[in-house]
Design goal:
The protein is mainly α. It has eleven helices and two strands, in the order αααββαααααααα. The protein has helices spanning 2-18, 31-38, 42-54, 76-84, 88-109, 112-127, 131-146, 152-164, 170-177, 180-198, 202-221, and strands at residues 58-61, 65-68. It has a two-stranded antiparallel ribbon with strand order 1-2. The longest helix is centred in the middle third of the chain and has 22 residues, at 88-109.
Amino acid sequence: MPRAIAADIARSLKQRIESGEWADGRQVPPERDLAADFGVARNTIRKAMLLLEEGGTISRHVGRGTFVTPLAGPSLSDIVARMEGASPADMMEVRLLMEPMASANAAINATAAQLAGIEEAHREAVAASEMIDFEHWDSELHHRIFACSRNELLRGVYQLLYVLRNQSPWFDMKKRSFSEERRQRYCEQHDAIVAAILRRDPDAARTAALVHLKTVEANILGR
């Protein structure tokens, strides 16, 4: 019977821990206090705590006390898996946060070779007559602008976005919203971004990128 009572207490304590009553790394009340709370002997509480320790819920340190075991953080693969399920609306929100800054950064830091690459992508997008070709060079233009960043972590994040925005449902929504009129509008807005980058004007580049992305958002999401 005492072991069954200890198991019940262990489940109760685990529920309280999972509910946030005691945060990760926080000390759990001493055995004498828990024994008084549950109306049992300290030996029963000790058995319950042993069950929690064996399950990895708590850790006990001689002379210091008993603490809630910090939960393991998500792995990189977990994070990527969640990002794969991001909605087009989520994607646009992130792009609106990141790409105007990236355009301003390109105006400041792009090398001559990077500027030539940005011009090439823009030129190919303008010349594209098929939707699939335009989408390729459209994505490539934004990718090359972001590649001017000297922050490898930032570049890595955008490379993941670059892959995701060319998969369903993002690509399907772009396809449905595509028209020649919109393609020409995008090219005009790209021209403003590229021109600002080429003349090393970060403020103008940031503003032009924001205007463009707001147009894309309105066309794709109907906002």
